[in-house]
Design goal:
One of its GO terms (cellular component) is membrane. Residues 88-127 are annotated as: Disordered. This is Sec-independent protein translocase TatB. It is a single-pass membrane protein. The protein is mainly alpha-helical. It has four helices and no strands.
Length: 127
């Protein structure tokens, strides 16, 4: 729970006792308890409302499969970029290494060496 250990919670409690004083601490603790109860009731109400709206399909949903903590963005991107079949009319990009030989950097480098004259280089991969 947010990386809070018993020692950290104890330290927060001691600091609260010193800052609030023993007179106001029970009042604020009661307010915190009411807030936690209200949040729990709101969450249970949302769950009950979802059950009512989804009907019997609610029990069929695999909630662990929909847990956002299980998603690895690197895996999702890797799977999206590596396609088994290329889209019709397009060729698949297969493990290209290194920069584009006709990219702007290569064109500028050749221009400095005197091998390229003419219009300014254009990089087709630039945004």
């Amino acid at each position: 729970m947010f990386g809070l250990t018993f020692e950290k919670l104890l330290l927060i409690g001691i600091i609260a006792v010193f800052l609030l004083g023993p007179e106001k601490l029970p009042h604020y603790a009661a307010q915190l308890g009411r807030l936690v109860r209200q949040l729990r009731d709101m969450a249970n109400g949302a769950k009950d409302r979802m059950k009512d709206e989804m009907g019997p399909e609610f029990d069929d949903v695999d909630w662990k499969k929909l847990d956002p903590r299980q998603y690895d963005p690197r895996r999702i991107i890797r799977e999206a970029l590596i396609e088994d079949e290329p889209v019709k009319g397009q060729s698949a990009v297969v493990g290209r290494t290194g920069p584009d030989p006709d990219g702007a950097y290569s064109q500028r480098k050749r221009a400095r060496e005197g091998a390229l004259t003419g219009p300014a280089p254009f990089d087709s991969e630039a945004t």
